[in-house]
Amino acid sequence: MELIKPGININFVGAIKWMVISSIVLTILSIGIMLGRGFNYGIDFAGGTLIQIKFQKETPTDDIRKALINLGIRDSIIQDFGPHEIVVRTAESTSDVGGLSSRIGDSLNALYGKGAFEVQRVEVVGPKVGKDLTQKAIFAVVFSWIGMLIYIAFRFDLRFAVGGIVGVIHDVIVVMGIFTLFNKEFTLTIVAALLTIIGYSIHDTIVVFDRVRENIRKDTKKDLHTVMNDSINQTLSRTILTSFTVVLVVVVLFLFGGPVINDFAFTLLIGVIFGTYSSVFIASPVVLAWERISPSKIKRKK
Amino acid sequence: MLKGIKIRTAIALVACLLGLFYLTPSLTSNLPDFWQKHLPVDKIHLGLDLQGGMHLVLEVDTEKALENTLERTANELKESLMGNKIRFRNIERTKDNHIVLEFPDASSRESFNKILKDQFNDLEEASSEIHEGRGLITLRVREKRKNEIKKLTVEQSLETIRNRVDQFGVTEPEIIPQGEDRIVVQLPGIKDAMRAKNLIGKTALLEFKLVNEEYPLAEAVKGNVPEGSVVAYETRLDRQTGRRVSTPILLKNRTLLTGGYLESAQVKISDRFGEPYVAIKFNAQGARDFDRITGENVKKRLAIVLDGTVHSAPVIQERISGGEAQITGTFTMDEAKDLAIVLRAGALPAPVNFLEERTVGPSLGQDSIDKGLWSAIIGGILIMVFMTAYYRLSGLVANLALILNMVILLGILVAFKATLTLPGIAGIVLIIGMSVDANVLIFERIREELRTGKTPRVSIETGYSRAFLTILDTNVNALIASLFLFGFGTGPVKGFAVTLSIGIITSLFTAVFVTRIIFDYFIWNRKISRVSV
Q1: Mind telling me how many Å the CA of B432 is from chain A's nearest CA?
Q2: Which of A200, B264, B276, B446 minimizes the number of CB atoms within 10 Å of its CB?
C-alpha cells in the first residue's frame, strides 16, 4: 500500500511565505489568548483541594453544591467526571491539609447516608508546592530546549539547531494557546504532554534535516531551496505515516484512557499535528532565512 | 554491528527471555514451585494511583527546631552565668532568633566571654554596644551549627516517622527525604487517610506539668495569666452527648518530665469502664525523676500534656516509685493504639506541616488499570493491523518487534523495580505508536532504494544503514526531552518519563537490531529475490 506516491513533488518551499505569515499570526493569537484569559491552573500549580466522589446513583450537583456552601466552601467547582462521578475543586488548601476532605465527607454522609457514595480520590496541594512546581516546569521545558539545541548544533550545525528549536517553541506556544482557548485545566500531566510534544516535534524535524544533510552532500551545486524542498518531499511519506500512527494511539488514549488521561491525550493530539506542521513550515524556513542572511562558509563537501 | 546472524539471534533471544522471565510473575499468581525458588518472583510495581494509597509530602519546621534549641541554650546560659556568679541583666531570646543580654561592667563582661568561648561554642557574637559603661550583647547561633541543627532535625523526623509507620503496619511504605526539609511518605493501600495522617503528623511531645491551683482560673481565662503559667485546655468526650468538650486549665510553664524518658507504651483496657488507656513505663532515669517529682508534689495535680493539650490532670495521691503511669482520657481503641505507637516511636523534634496529600481509593486504581490496559491493547492492535496492511510481510516483522519491545520494556520495569503509574501506561501506549517510526523510516528507505532498481539485498542494507543515523538522532532528542521530564516530575509523571525513556531505548533495539536479523536471515539463508515491503 502506498499513501504518498513516489516522486511526489509539492512545492512546499514556495508556500512557505504564507505558512510563515499564518504561523506568526497563530503564535501572536496564542500569546494573546494566554495573556487575555490566563491559565486555568489546576491544584498542582495553584494549590487547593480536589475530591473525586462516586455516587451509587444519580445525584444532582446542585444538592451537593448546597451542602458545600453550608460548610463555608463557596468558591468550589463541581464537575461531572463520568457516570455518577463528580469532582469538587476548591482553592482552599489550609494549613490543615485534608481536614477539608473529611469535613466534606462528613456532610455528605449526613445528607446521603453512609455507603451512598465513595471518595475515590483526594488531592490537597499547599501553595508552597505549587510555586516550586511552576518553577520546575518552566526549567524542565527551557532546559530541554537548550539540551536539544546543543545536540543538534553538535550533530548538524547551528542553523539547523536554531531552526528546530524555533519550531518547537512555536509548537509549545500554539498548543498552550489552544489549550487555554478550550479552558482546560493546566496540571502536571499537561507539562508531561508538553515535553512529549517537544520530543516528538524535534524528532520529526530531525528526520527532514537528516535528509537535507544527506542531499547536500550528494549534490553540492543545488541551492538550499531546492534541496530543502526535495528532502521534504522525499520524507513526506514517512512524516505522514508516523504522524498517523502516533495520532492513532493518542486518539485511543483520548477515547479509552479515562478522564484522568483525557486532557493529556487532547494536548498530545494538538501537539502532534502542530509538531508535524512545524517541521516543514517553521523549522525549514528558519534554516533558509539563515542561509540567505549568511551563507554557510564551509562549502559543502563530502 | 555483529555480522554473524547466530550471535545476533542469540542476543535477541536472551533479551526476550530475560524480559519474559521478569514479566511472568506479574502475569500469573500461581507460579510453579521451582520458579518460586530459583527465578524472579517480583511483580510489576504499581504506583499509588493504580494500587490505591496515600502520598504525602511533609515539611519539617526546622525554624521551630532552631527556636527550641535557642530557647534551651538561653536557659543554659542563664544558669551557667548564675552558677558562676557573673552579674548580668535581662537575658532574653528575641523573635529573630538572637539572644540579647546586658552586663553592668567590664569585668563581668570578660568573665562572660570566657564562658561563651569554653561552654557555648555554637554561639557567636552578632553585635555588641557599650552604653554608659554597660555592655549590650547580641548573640546568634553560628551558621554552620544552624545548618547542622536543621539537617539533624530532618533526619530525626524521618527516623521517627519511619518508626511510627513500621509499627502501624503498612506493607512496603516508602519514606524518603526530598530537598532540604521535606519528607515524602508513600503508604500503599491505606484506607483511613485521616488516621494515617494523625499518626504521622502528630508531634507527640509528652510533657508532665503541675497545675497552678493557687491562682483563680477565671481570672486567667480572662487574660490575666500570672507569670510562669499558661492556660491550656483539657478535652474529653462527653459520654452522654458524644461531643468533645474542652475545659480550660491553668498550668505552670516548667516541664517536669517529657516523653523522652519513656521505655514503653502499651494499650490496656481498664477494669472499671472497659475503656482503653495507654500504660507508659519510664526508663531508669525517667523513673527516678518521676519518683522525685511525685514525692515532692503529693496532693497536687499533675497534668499530662500531649502537644499542648491536657489529657488528664490527676491528683498525686502518693509518691510513685517504679516509673509506671497511665494516660487515660476518652479514647477509642484506634486512638489509644495510635497514641501508644507515637509515644513508643518518640516525639518529632519539630512540628511538621503537610504540603501535599494525594489519596487514591483502590477501586479507582483498578479502574485506571483496566482503562490503561484496554488502551494499550486497542492501540497495539490498530497499529499492527495498519503496519501489516501497509508493509505486508515486512509489517509483520515490525509487529514482532513491537511485541518484543513491550515484553522487554515491561521486563525492565520489573527488573529495575520501576513504578508503573497511569501516565506511565499512557507512555507505553505512546511508545506503541512512536516506536514503529523506526521501522517506517527503514521501510520507506528500502522502498526508495528498490525503486532505483537495486537488488533486495543492497536495498535492505542501504535502507538500514541510511536510516540508522536518523533513528539515532531522533531518539537521542526524544530521550533528552523525557530525561528532563524525569527530573521535573513527581510521582505519576515520573512514571511517564520512566516508561517513555526505557521505551525509546528498547525500541531502538527491537525495531532496528531485531528486525535486521530477520531480514538478514531471509536474504542470506533463504536468498529471497523479492522483498514484501
Answers
A1: 7
A2: B264
Q: Is the residue at B278 inside a domain?
A: yes
> What are the tens digits of pLDDT across the range B174-187?
999 988 899 999 99
State how far the alpha carbon of B185 is from the alpha carbons of B64, B159, B162, in Å: 21, 12, 9
Could you tell me the pLDDT band of residue A241, with boundaries at 50, 70 and 90?
very high
Q: How many domains does chain B have?
A: 3
> In the numeric block, which cell numbers belong to residue B361?
481509593
Cβ proximity of A182 and A263 under 8 Å: no
For residue A8, the distance in angstroms to the closest alpha carbon of chain B comes to 12
Residue B316 phi/psi, 5-degree rounding, is -75, 115
Q: What is the domain range of residue B139?
A: 63-146
Chain A residue numbers with beta carbons less than 8 Å from the beta carbon of B391 are 1
Give yes or no for a contact between B333 and B343, defined as CB atoms under 8 angstroms apart: no
On whether the pTM is more than 0.80, the answer is yes
- Asked if residue B244 and residue B214 are part of one domain, the reply reads yes
Within chain A, all domains assigned CATH 1.20.1640.10 are found at 12-42+129-293
Q: What topology is assigned to A12-42+129-293 in CATH?
A: Multidrug efflux transporter AcrB transmembrane fold (1.20.1640)
Please give the Cα distance from A86 to A79 (Å, whole number): 5
Asked whether B59 and B355 are in contact (CB, 8 A), the reply is yes
- List B residues 460-489 in contact with A (Cβ-Cβ < 8 A): 466, 469-470, 473-482, 484-485, 487-489
Please check whether residue A30 is in contact with residue A176, taking contact to mean a CB–CB distance below 8 angstroms: yes
What would the pLDDT profile of B378-426 be if each residue is shown by its tens digit? 999 999 999 999 999 999 999 999 999 999 999 999 999 898 998 999 9
Q: Cβ(B459)–Cβ(B446) under 8 Å?
A: yes
Q: Which residues of B touch A192 (CB under 8 A)?
A: 423, 485, 489, 493, 496-497
Of B146, B176, B194, the domain-final residue? B146
Here the ipTM equals: 0.88
CATH architecture of structural domain A48-125:
2-Layer Sandwich (3.30)
Q: State whether B477 and A120 contact (CB < 8 Å).
A: no
